[in-house]
């Protein structure tokens, strides 16, 4: 997934998930096996990996 926005880093002294801040990255990291966020001049790319159970 790619967009033209940029991630805003919260201040170092601010705990995550406070009012006015999103929880999206925390949720991605909690739910996925791997997360990667790259920001650059062309926008932001997010790579998420989740291994699925083999029920066979």
From TrEMBL:
It comes from the Bacteria. InterPro entries: HATPase_C_sf, HATPase_dom. Residues 2-50 form the Histidine kinase/HSP90-like ATPase domain. Pfam families: HATPase_c_2 (PF13581). Residues 1-23 are annotated as: Disordered. This is Histidine kinase/HSP90-like ATPase domain-containing protein.
